[in-house]
Amino acid sequence: MDEQKKATIWVGASEVAGDRRHLYLLFQKSDGSQTVVRGGPDTRAEGNDLANFAESTVLGSEKFGHIRVEAAPYIAPYEIGYRLKQDGNYEPVPLNQLDPSEPALARDAKGNIVKATVTAPDWPAPGERHERIVAWSGSDQELSTKLESALKAGDQINHAQLEYSPLHNNSNGVVSNLLKASGVQPVLPKNAQGETVNAPDFGEDLYQDVGAASVRSGYRFDGKQWFDADDRRIAPPTSGQPLVPQDPAAPSRGSSDGFKLSAQAPSPSDPMFAQIQDGVHRIDHSLNRVPDAASDRMTWSLYALAKEQDLERVDNVVLGQAGTRAAAGEYVFLVQGDPSTSVYHREQMRTADAVESSVEQSQARVQSAEQTRALAMTVEAQEQNQKQDAPRLQV
């Protein structure tokens, strides 16, 4: 029985930029042989890496193509040569399996055998340290089933053509979703200081598109189920093909019975709503976007935030700049007053949350905030009346 409990699934992490990590999976059989499964972009962006990163995360430019999931034997680097086949093409062959005297081997101008080194995906470079943690252990048979489930989910991701983005929709999101597809609880390795590594997008759903300010939209995958933009269950999608609802009668996100208002409903007469809407549209224009349904959802989300925080007006709506703890555009801010003075107020929320929350959810928040405020005003008025009616001491 002990021999059957040696198969494991590892989560590996390698450094990519600063303290951020790229994750991958190792499916290891009891004999020690390993298969690496990982995600990454199918396009290598040309030009400056920092500029490409900014254009992808802030402007929503498709600099990195789509997510590509791949699997390969995880073995030490080895050298290959090239042997001429009968069809005129060369086939790669491990160097230790070749006879150096073979006339069919590819050679350079000096007669030397043309060689190349094959390195498995995510194999550590010399001196490179990877953090790893065991996410699961069991029998080889169980491991085979889990690997099959992960590869099936990977094929679905490849067919769906999900846009790759460095911060939202990346290899880390692939790892957590493949673990869920395999029935394994996602877990992160720890660094040398004993802290959980920083792996952006780990634990998040994978989306069809990543737009300006890293706003995600379209159909999505949570590791076990695909959903359309209205949160209805769909069959695994294929890019360019019509979506197939699993329950055509299921209500969409915009048809809630609790609130019949929708993104097309009349806007509130509150001037603060118009101030927020103008600010959101200014952001759209600065990013060369045409205001759309996502803009409406953001406007309502921010309006609900303003109501909850008792703002009297909104003078500006801005996206956050890159900092040590957040990427550019990761947060959106409401500003009341002049930031150059000490008399101003600022509230914030994650940009993705602002865009992904439905109009109905935000309208419910607005209604709740207004009811809370009305109740507070009623209580305050009653307290004032009680003070006025109280007997006064005569001096």
UniProtKB/TrEMBL annotation:
Domain X-Tfes XVIPCD residue range list: 268-367
Pfam family, one: X-Tfes_XVIPCD
Alphabetical list of InterPro entries matching this protein: X-Tfes_XVIPCD
Location of region: Disordered: 228-269
Protein name: X-Tfes XVIPCD domain-containing protein
Organism per entry: Xanthomonas arboricola
